[in-house]
Request: fold
Amino acid sequence: MQFRMTFCACLLLAVVSLQSSAEGIDVVTEDSMYAYPSDGKVGGPGTRIVEETLRGAALTEYRLSLYPWARAYEKALHEPNVLIYPLTRTAVREDLFKWVGEIDQVAIKLYKLRGRIDIALDSLEDGKRYTVGVVRNDTKQIFLEQKGFTRLVVSTDNHDNFQKLLNEQVQLLPMSENSARLASKDAQVDFSLLEEIFTIEEQPARIYMAFSRETPDEIVDKARRSFEQLEASGAVVRMMSEGRPSR
Reply:
């Protein structure tokens, strides 16, 4: 009897695993320098890397969706068979996801509106005097909270966050230079309107694609092997260097 119960339990787990694989993968992301709307689809260098990784892994059943970051993150945190990108890899997140591969690495800087001579930083500690715009569940929010920042203004996405800086609802924004340039372009303002005043040396962002914890290991392993081949061929660096075209 014990053997039959154990056998049935193993069989049930196998069936569940097969069903999960057959249901396809939910690929989720936000509008950013890595992913953005393009001709009715989701384009961008990060998107191309993800799609090439899935193609090489023969994981062709997937749905690719743009969401506000908080929603994309919650799906990846709580639902099975979800692939999320771009996701910064940190110690806090290490055990929350199954990591596939690093698609980029960027320095995070604090920006203000040029001309705000009343805002000056000699250290990260000085930044606590000012209101700082962050995106909900983004690593920059988590990092600054851990550093004791209490004047954080939380937005649901990057566009809203950037508009708050332009409207002087916040005084500082943490961004990479490329993100700052693209946000300026999307908002139809000149990048020279911004001024970089501090580089957060403690947090060079390591940007990854990752699966949710409940995704079967066989799927994750296939994606990892495919990504490793892309990386070894130089395709990851090449696709990232293509950047984001004008739109």
